[in-house]
Amino acid sequence: MWSPKSTDVHTPSRTSAMRALILAVFATLALSASAVTDVDILNFALNLECLEAQFYSYAALGVPLNATLTGNGPAPIGGAMASLSGFVKPIANEIAMDEISHVNFLRTALGAKAAVCPQVDIGPAFNTAVRAALGITDKNFDPYKDDTNFLLAAFLFEDVGVTAYKGAAPLIVDKGYLSAAAGILAVEAYHAGIIRTLLYQRAVQYVKPYNIQVALFVEKLSHLRETLDGTGNDDFGVIAPPATDNGFYFPFKSDMDSSLVPTDANAIAFSRTIPQVLSIVYGTPITSNPTKGLFYPNGINPAK
């Protein structure tokens, strides 16, 4: 939702609550619930990067991650080289190389404690998410079909990555790890900004076969994320005021503006706890305490 923007400040009590939630999640992964370590947090990040890297590697390069990068993890479900224009293709290539580098960096930094990349669904899961967002049971969404579909699929991931790193940052103790996480957060924010800008440029175009303009499609995906994570106010589309079911956005109205940077009232990026992030990538409301689903059919993997 676009307005009002909510306050998102890391007070000590909020940080303690976040740590308690994360402890509960890691307890379900058969990890010690005595403390959440930097290794736990970085392995969670590695699980997310495995998903993004597999998607972009297939979309841009037409191949999955190699066994060294995945730690001999299972092959992904779905995946294909995307049919991209000469303008979007180089962008997809660059993001793919960044995400692959993130996986390599985290696996190297964690060494023997690095988790094996879990099985990820980068095919049918997108269709499931889109149907849930649009409230439909027909029409199939192919994330590799063209520029617009690829960007919409990427949008599902990018803002989640930014909020995940932002939420985890206060929990990281080692300054070296914190610096690295901050660097990855910055790159993820660059990616999110690029994807949001490209979608904003297409705001008035229609997504086939849905006969829905891009602006509204994005708004629906955004609303799905903020509904799953239980907040209802930490996710925005790409135009403001937000797109509605009754809206047709050509030409743009005088009171319509871009919404390229989703922030709170202080222009600070939103945070998500690990349970909130998992609720989105598992495609299940946080109130159900999901342990697997959607993009992670078997859940995420703990540290070795």
From TrEMBL:
Q: Which SUPFAM superfamilies match?
A: Ferritin-like (SSF47240)
- ATP-binding found in the keyword field: no
Keyword list, A-Z: Signal
Q: Which Pfam families match?
A: Ferritin_2
Q: Return the CDD domains for the record.
A: Ferritin_like (cd00657)
Signal sequence extent = 1-35
Entry annotated with the keyword Membrane: no
Protein name, entry field: Desiccation-related protein PCC13-62
What is the species listed in this Swiss-Prot or TrEMBL entry? Elliptochloris bilobata
